[in-house]
Amino acid sequence: MICERARKYDGVRIDIWSDVVCPWCYIGIMRFERALEGFDGEVEVRLHPFQLDPEAPIPGVSARERYDAKFGDEAAAILARVTATAAEDGLVFDFDRARTCNTFDAHRAIAFARRAGKDRKLERSLFAAYFSEGLDVSDRDVLADRAAAVGVNRDALAAHLASDDGVDALRLELVEAFDRGITSVPTFVFEDEFAVPGAVDAATFRRILEQMRAMSGA
User: Fold this and answer.
1) To the nearest whole percent, how much of the chain has pLDDT over 90?
2) CATH assignment of 2-211?
3) What's the pLDDT at 45?
4) What angle in degrees, to the nearest 10, is found between the helix axes of 75-88 and 23-37?
5) Are 134 and 98 in contact (CB under 8 A)?
6) Is the pLDDT of residue 119 over 70?
7) Is the pLDDT of residue 10 over 70?
8) Fewest Cβ atoms closer than 10 Å to its Cβ: which of 4, 65, 119, 199?
9) Is residue 68's pLDDT more than 90?
10) Whole-prediction pTM value?
11) Beta carbons of 197 and 209 less than 8 angstroms apart
12) Cα(156)–Cα(47) distance, rounded to whole angstroms?
């Protein structure tokens, strides 16, 4: 699929694997978006799903309690570090309010929003919903409301989520991520050949974009 797009597009192509409950995905994608603000070349950005915890519950549960159970005495320090890093990038993380949940439907909603060219806006909205606002992003009403706020037809998305539409396609994409060797997120792949794992700084993203543009002649 990516190779087919490579034959049709003359700008810089970036494929991003992420999950809306991943703190480093939120930080990394916002840094990437800042890099794009000062880049005058054409880009094509394609989002791809990844689930950090496919067994996470619906409805969501306290993220703080889940982190405590996973990391024990180290949980508070881990959350403090990532919260401080997010703050340096102007992001508000509130793990005391966050509700850890299954993100399968969130990825279905993002895929649906792609039809209207609103997938990136919806993803950013869901990041904020989870990390800053304490909303349960497995809740289909929450997903429909956030989608409507970025310009996606609320009723159409609600009907989509209530059906089985997109379920098999999403499952296939999740498997394909592992087939490509993607085991952690965020992962940014430039021109289907240069992978950047993790939340690198905006300046690094800008340099990579410039290098990719020079190599492609875009």
Assistant:
1) 90
2) 3.40.30.10
3) 97
4) 10
5) yes
6) yes
7) no
8) 4
9) yes
10) 0.92
11) no
12) 21
